[in-house]
Amino acid sequence: MNIAIIPARGGSKRIPRKNIKDFCGKPLIAYSIEAALQSGLFDKIIVSTDDEEIATVAKQYGAEVPFLRPRELSDDFTGTIPVIKHAIEATCKDQTLLKAVCCIYATAPFVQPYYIQEAYAKLKSTQSAYAFSATTYAFPIQRAIKLTHDHVEMFDSKHFSTRSQDLEEAYHDAGQFYWGTPEAWMEEKIIFAPHSTAVLLPRHLVQDIDTGEDWVQAELMYKALHENTLQS
């Protein structure tokens, strides 16, 4: 049995009610639920929330909400892994029946069923603890700069004259989904480690949505992609 777990607490501060705010015609969380359904990989799609309104919206789009998340796991400091562990414990009495568990963020309107499927296949073929979405940095991180009291300083000045094509490519978490074995989630193994693998997404399908500016940019990106039927 495979299950998808979508964490969606109600206390978003920077974008109030973010998880169910209208994004290009649908509540934001609807995109994650629909991608999970369209992947055809899940026996259950569960939304973990502490909020009744989010629960109602999630059910309308085809997810299950078999419990309300306890308050101690719904604050600003609780990480994703304990939330997924709790959801597994709350919904699966016999964890030996589980093959894999996929956390899909509720704030990922660009998530595509194809990449969820690809990551699942890679999780199995590599026998990794986790398989998650990642993408490349647009600029060489080795040439990053910082501002210190109105002055500029390189993080690593030895690369000032290094050609960008000679620098090692760097990647970052795409913030969309994380497949994991039941054991990895229950043992709370860290995700970004050698026991994990990654599926690479094109940068035009990756956008964090943490601020109002992010939201505007994401809607513009989505509308542009939608005109081309979200071809990757």
Topology:
Layout: E1 2-7, E2 22-23, E3 26-27, H1 28-39, E4 44-48, H2 52-60, H3 80-91, E5 100-104, H4 113-126, E6 130-136, E7 145-148, E8 151-154, E9 171-180, H5 182-186, E10 196-200, H6 212-226
Parallel strand pairs: 1-4, 1-5, 6-10
Antiparallel strand pairs: 2-3, 5-9, 6-9, 7-8
Helix pairs in contact: 1-4
Structural description of this entry:
- The protein is α/β, with parallel strands linked by helices and 232 residues long.
- The protein has one domain (2-133, 173-226): Spore Coat Polysaccharide Biosynthesis Protein SpsA, Chain A (Alpha-Beta Complex).
- It has six helices and ten strands; from the N terminus they run βββαβααβαββββαβα.
- The protein has helices at 28-39, 52-60, 80-91, 113-126, 182-186, 212-226, and strands spanning 2-7, 22-23, 26-27, 44-48, 100-104, 130-136, 145-148, 151-154, 171-180, 196-200.
- The strands form three sheets. The chain has a six-stranded mixed β-sheet with strand order 4-1-5-9-6-10, sandwiched between helices.
- A hairpin with a 2-residue loop joins β2 (22-23) and β3.
- α1 crosses α4 (113-126).
- The protein is globular, with a radius of gyration of 19 Å.
- The mean pLDDT is 95.
What is this entry, summarized?
With 232 residues, this protein is α/β, with parallel strands linked by helices. The chain has helices at residues 28-39, 52-60, 80-91, 113-126, 182-186, 212-226, and strands spanning 2-7, 22-23, 26-27, 44-48, 100-104, 130-136, 145-148, 151-154, 171-180, 196-200. It contains 6 helices and 10 strands, in the order βββαβααβαββββαβα.
